[in-house]
Amino acid sequence: MSDLDDKREQINFVSVDSAPKRFAGSVSEWQAPKMLAVFALLATTQLWFVNTDFVAQVFPNRDYVFSTHSGRHAIAIRIFLISFFVAFAAFSSGDFRGRSMFGLDLVLTFLAGCAVFDLANVMAEDILGSSFSLHFSAIASGLFGFAVYSFKLLERGFMPARIRVQHIPVSQMRALLRLGVTIAIAAGVAMWVGGLGLHLVEVMRSLTLLGGIGPGVFLFLPVLFGQLYVLAIYDVATAKKPKFNPPVSVIVPAHNESYIIKDTINAMDRAAQHYGGEVNVLIMNNNSTDDTEEIARETLLSCKAAKGRVINVPKPGKSNALNAGLDACETEFLVRVDADTLVGEDNFSRAMPYFTDPSVGVVGGVPVPPGGALFDRARLLEVLVKHGFYSVAMGAVNGVVGIPGMFVVYRTQHPRQLGGFVEGMNGEDTDISLRIGELGFHSVVDPKIRYISEVPSSYSHMREQRMRWFRSIYHISSRCRDLIYGPNVTLRGKVILPYMLVNSARRAMLVPLIIFGTLEWGVAFNENTPIVWQSIVAVTTGAPAIVAVVASLLNGVPRGILALPEYLIFRVLRAYFTLESMLSILIDIRAENLELAIRRDIVPDKPIRVA
């Protein structure tokens, strides 16, 4: 283990950004376990109830389904969601009245949607003579339940105020054409393979790689993103990259970073030597209580190519430091680097040529872990999948929402035009990238721009980081809800942000879903249930495992496959942290009508200041 790993084990990072005081409350490590225990009790009671002889006559599908469907359900999804809604609301952050109203809102809205599904099924039976399958109904109910959860949490949680997102329309014809063609091909491949009856599919099911789902459903998204990835790599490979090394400013927000700040600055100095242009490093010492300032000053004096200075920012908060750095920037281009990031030698020289294209507004790359600590191997696969595969692929249709602030390059005028980095909430890096994209500029993720980014080495540090990260999607969606509910039709606002919210709900429910599936299989109240143990295991092993292998190979990091078992376990832990993060969101007594709020006076497009 390296010295850096030894130092990481001593870190227990906490800052004002860990739980913004207006939007998040503290969550004890026992809150989620207690919530899961109540959830299991509620679920078990209801599963027993619907399988009693008398009640089973009312609900022959052994779920709260009020119309006849063909087939059987894979899981009693409505019982699952109602149990989750009640348990989650009971342990969410808020007073008793707020939590009660939240739980009631979740359950009643969900049941109303289910009533519509069942009524549509009755009408289909009467008019067409055939009903929807129970499998289809379960999928529809599940997706609707995820949406209800995420949007009700957005409505009832204390969230950042909505701003008017500046939108400059540009032609989306190329992106839409690409998206339409790739969707059609993915659907065609999925249906073709689904109709082949391959023996390989049965083998994969037996190895828990499909868990009982059809190969067509399983293949659609990987084939879609695989095509987009190839198109994005083509764009990166054919982009004009003349030598371009204008002066750049690098802002580095630093809070108690004495253990690594010397390595961070030295890495930037090596990158500056390779770059050949002027590199100005601004270390934004953000209320540090250790010797970060002294070490940074000494290291800057010894740099061979980079030059810089330390600027003290006494007001705590990363965005405060970033905005002070933005004010001090005197160059046309701005590089943001986290204090725990070691940039690669070619990062500046590879990123800057993209800006010779006037349509490019943001450039980023792929973080890699330093290695040697508890979570580093799992994190390697995580970044290869998320940043090295999905983010790269979304660039093919100009659909990148955010580029992480570990290493990212902007045109300085854009953050200034947008009022700087938002303060007092989580996700300031995604917020600024998203809004630059809405100005009509392209975000590039180059998978060959790689840099070393610190990975927490302790459970408590990882928990703090992930709760902060996972809360950010709600903060961003609330602040930029203009994109979701406003009149401008954009891929980010109408598709990607809602998908991210729904996906966050799915991830928050992953651990409860595993518990519920185990209950249905283990207690076996319904002797006709199709659930097998492979289905339960496949929730965490099937598609994620195959996508991780593909991402490792595409990124030229085959050794990442060796970390697959750790990655699959880490995904469950990550889901658990998501649940804890959602429990930390402060719940209000009253719900805000997000759509009607579009017509009200709104906050101008400027930073939120911490009260």
Automatic annotation (TrEMBL):
Keyword Zinc among record annotations: no
Name by which UniProt lists this protein: Poly-beta-1,6-N-acetyl-D-glucosamine synthase
Region forming the signal peptide: none
Enzyme Commission identifier(s): 2.4.1.-
Name of the top EC class for this enzyme: transferase
Keyword Chloroplast: no
GO MF entry, a single one: glycosyltransferase activity
InterPro entries for the chain: Nucleotide-diphossugar_trans (IPR029044)
Taxonomic source organism: Ruegeria atlantica
Protein family membership: Belongs to the glycosyltransferase 2 family.
PANTHER family from the UniProt entry: POLY-BETA-1,6-N-ACETYL-D-GLUCOSAMINE SYNTHASE
Source organism, top-level taxon: Bacteria
Keywords carried by this UniProt record: Glycosyltransferase, Membrane, Transferase, Transmembrane, Transmembrane helix
CDD domains on file: CESA_like
Membrane spanning stretches: 32-50, 70-90, 102-120, 132-154, 175-201, 213-234, 508-525, 531-554
